[in-house]
Amino acid sequence: MNATKAVTTVVAAVIAAVSAGTAHAQTPACAPRDQVVEKLATKYGETRRSIGLGSNNAMMEVFASGETGTWTITVTSAAGVTCLVASGQAFETLAEALPKAESDA
Fold first, then answer.
1. Which helix or strand (DSSP H or E) is residue 100 part of?
2. Which pLDDT score, from 0 to 100, does residue 101 have?
3. Which of 70, 62, 10, 25 is nearest to 45 (CA)?
4. Does the global pTM surpass 0.85?
5. What is the mean pLDDT of residues 6-30?
6. Helix or strand (DSSP H, E) at 25
7. How far is Cα 77 from Cα 56, in angstroms, rounded to an integer?
8. Which candidate, 48, 60, 72, 49, places its Cα nearest to that of 18?
9. What percent of the chain is modeled with pLDDT above 70?
10. Would you give the DSSP letter of residue 77?
11. How far apart are CA 63 and CA 37, in angstroms?
12. Alpha-carbon distances, residue 4 vs 11, 78, 103 (angstroms)
């Protein structure tokens, strides 16, 4: 499995788990969305880089800093509660082309 598919699979699993309200060993850090976005901007210099809609209308967002390379993945419920689900370093923006379609020959 390539790295892009692996990340997509992990993000989908996180959205599904958070959307379903699954109990975890660790409770994710959650707060109203505006507070989370402000904290990511002021403390880490991160801005929204991508967005996606998951099950139960959960919104997944990736925030990142071009200067420091830090990144954070959040999931926001339809009620407006945002939870931090992953973070890290060395963020890079990629624009990869889709592989050529295989023929049935």
1. none
2. 86
3. 70
4. no
5. 51
6. none
7. 8
8. 60
9. 70
10. -
11. 9
12. 11, 27, 23
